[in-house]
Amino acid sequence: MARREPSLTTERFTTSQLLEIDACTRCGECLNWCPVLEEIEEETFTPEGREGMTDKQKMDFSPKNKLTGMREMLNKGYGLRAKLFGPRQIPEDDVLKLKDEIYHCTTCGICSTVCEASINTVEIWESFRRNAVMHKRGPYGKQTGFVDLLASHNVFAADQEDRLCWVPEDIEIKDKADVAYFTGCTAAFRMQRVGVATTRVLQALDIPFTMLGPEEWCCVSVLIRTGQLELAEEFVNHNVNAMIDKGVKTVIYACAGCHRTSRIDWPKFYEGGDLPFEILAISEYMDRLLDDGTLSESDFDWKNPLKKRVTFHDSCHTGRHCGVYDAPRRIYDMVPGAEFVEMARTRELQRCCGAGGGIKAGVSDLALKMAQKRVQDAELVNADIITCTCPFCRRNIMDGINAMDTNIIFKDQQEILAEAMGLDLTLPDNPYIDKQM
Ligand code: SF4
Ligand code: SF4
Asked: Least packed by Cβ within 10 Å: which of 279, 296, 344, 434?
């Protein structure tokens, strides 16, 4: 008789992840920090079909219980008893319940940061999602549409030929350059003001740069975060080879999602191994130029003091995932008139805004609640402006602001720089003007 397959297989998990799943000491520290669990416990958000949950059922959304659930299921499939008598079957509904819980996660990474056993939880959640997609249990909700959208090579099913339609005529894009600005789908089609600000600042600072234009394909963050890998290799290799053709040595990003994906995920899919160029957040790049003397503060030629109280939201992707905290703060510190203030939860212990991990598409109510919580953090320090280095956080935080009665406004870091430098942020007429967020 054919031996039964375990209900939850180890496919897509690495050996060290399987050990890490076993290493959870159940200390419970992560329960104090998980922003999703916080919303579920406070009942500001109830997962679909889970009304009237007991405290114990709510706890199943915690990092601790998700790891425990995985460990128990894997033991039933691969433990000693399973070796002797065959895997014990787990009702499919139980596996689907765990799957739903793991898709209610923004992959913010704070559970990993505070974990006393140093478990890389984000990688484990993503491996579980990859396994779920393999077995046709995932992805979740509207995340299923990502692969079809990417037939256009961007997440908005827009015409790739329009990739640079937002660039003002007087901005010079070099054919080849040491530095490339990877714009990302969101800034190219839905938040063009961020793209215009970034290119204006680069030009004003005399930093020559190139862009890939129609050859810039989606960074595939949306696929990798949600466990859908089928297009990842093709897209990553296309983007890397397009950068090589342009002679690029450094790729800079004003989008935290693209930055994280390029820096941490692309090397896993690039057929040549290590990337043949470096990946930097734009603030890191400016920080370096200021350090080595290529740039000085006077080069910013400030025109308009900001005269506002500003607080910075570290995006999970550039902050906790890539460890970039000081460089963006150095940029804000330079802006004349900006009174910079930190929220209570900042840097490594920042509170996720709720946009990432496919939650904005998959569980949009949850994303909105989390954004409002982050705006409340900014209100508590009397900020006039909440700022970030991520168009995706920008979209979610602005949705949060719009759903609240608050005077706080959102501005991207590059927008703040460009305005303080007196640069023109007018968008050229283009087919996406009415779709701007
Ligand atoms: S990554 Fe963030 S949202 Fe996901 S389980 Fe950990 S703390 Fe919760
Ligand atoms: S903090 Fe780490 S070890 Fe403690 S319960 Fe959470 S995942 Fe387990």
From this structure: 434
